[in-house]
């Protein structure tokens, strides 16, 4: 006699059975295989017993590489360098400093809320999977479907915007090396972006062991670059601003009034840097003891980013010189101009190049997380052609089709930059909005229905208060991020983030009513736990593997 897995949702099991009978999408012909539970490590056994998924990845990530992965997603040095113009336009140095401090506190609440959910439900599906355990059965299909699609939009936009920023930084270094006699065109920037995205796809096609080794080295390199850059700027900048200027000078250049409202657009820099917390969740099936290592990595990495980012912003504000001149830099990268002004051509090239390398690290890890998300969504059949995207290559142990699905859409979304640079800024904006919405939907479910069973990492009595503030903060900043960042509003200054959000929601709704509601009942079970008479074994329908 079979024993169901430890699902808290019996009706989901019945619905999953119904899917096998009634789904319009055919279930692939695969042979069931039997595996001894005692032959599996504890994390793989939990994945099969508690969540009903077949383990298909090698668990290569330990404490250091998991922390480094979580830290790398933020990019810190490089992402601040890419987005520093936003707080400068919003309100000058005071906006850069205080918006980081205020918004970072809200982001830490979101990070802690996500870490708590990841500890309880460590699967590659991430936050959309948690809905199946947090919401009542009848609400699971629609809510998890919505959460999944919004999260997918946020991750694609995140990789796309990071690759675009990486291309800008590389070309800024080239322009600096040629004494600004050459200025890159938008078409060239997009071409370089596409090449860099393909490079990330190639690296993510390597076996997981290689990716773990590359990830492990990141945090050390990043900290060395950050510390050395701060010291160099403080030592070499001759005409530094004073503390009063850095902490109190407000110079809005956005066109918005009153000044206090303009000031709020400085939140975008920190929200774009301190996001994608669930990226670590998407590699949970490649982490040893993910219920412990993943949440600690998320919380500690974001805490480090919060503190170090605040200090780095202060250093930049002391050393940036005239705001108007760096915002009008021919390199189109204010921080690269700061490096050049303070450190000279050689020093500027070194740190602009370091920023480029770090941005590529972000893209590398974010692409890995995105590919695992595509794999997990396809495993639960959220995407068209799911049987293709969920295939795992037998030689590399990675979902190659999911990797190149990710590469294609990241390039495609950036092609809109050929028509309007304002649309590219919309990609930056929608990253934070979409990702944060996909985080707070499960948090709201947790607060409303009280079905949450905590994992080893949890906040105890502080959980509800932190969750509430995470929700309130996300709603607040989302409203701000849908506004154009400057006035007067024209086709070139319009914020197209709301267009991206409306488009993906429309696509998700159309696919839901045309196909999804007919077969999707929430995350599916691939495994069935057998009774003691069979020796305590589990049986699974394998995920298709490429030969």
Q: Largest beta sheet, briefly?
A: 4 strands, antiparallel
Which regions are unreliable across 5 or more consecutive residues at pLDDT < 50?
1-31, 531-543
* Gap from first CA to last CA: 34 Å
What is the total tally of β strands? 6
Radius of gyration: 23 Å
The amount of beta strand, in percent, is under 5%
Q: Report strand order across the widest sheet.
A: 1-4-5-2
Percent helix: 55-70%
The top-level CATH class is Mainly Alpha
What is the correct CATH architecture?
Up-down Bundle
Structural class: mainly alpha
Mean pLDDT: 84
Under CATH, the topology can be stated as: Amino acid/polyamine transporter I
Q: What oligomeric assembly is this protein in?
A: single chain
SSE order in H/E notation?
Answer: EHEHHHHHHHHHHHHHHHHHEHHHHEEE
Shape descriptor reads globular
CATH homology superfamily name: Amino acid/polyamine transporter I
Subcellular location: Membrane
Pfam families: AA_permease_2
Keywords: Amino-acid transport, Membrane, Transmembrane, Transmembrane helix, Transport
InterPro entries: AA/rel_permease1, AA_permease
Structural description of this entry:
- It is found in: Membrane.
- It is a multi-pass membrane protein.
- One of its GO terms (molecular function) is transmembrane transporter activity.
- By secondary structure, this protein is mainly alpha-helical.
- The protein has one domain (67-513): Amino acid/polyamine transporter I (Up-down Bundle), CATH 1.20.1740.
- It is 66% helix and 3% strand.
- It has 22 helices and six strands.
- It has helices at residues 10-22, 42-51, 63-74, 77-83, 85-91, 93-120, 127-134, 140-177, 186-203, 208-236, 243-248, 259-263, 267-273, 279-282, 290-319, 323-327, 334-379, 386-389, 400-414, 421-449, 463-481, 497-519, and strands at 2-3, 33-36, 392-393, 527-530, 537-540, 545-546.
- The strands form two sheets. The chain has a four-stranded antiparallel sheet with strand order 1-4-5-2, with no helix packed on it.
- Strand 4 and strand 5 (537-540) form a beta hairpin.
- The protein is globular.
- Residues 1-31 and 531-543 have low confidence and may be disordered.
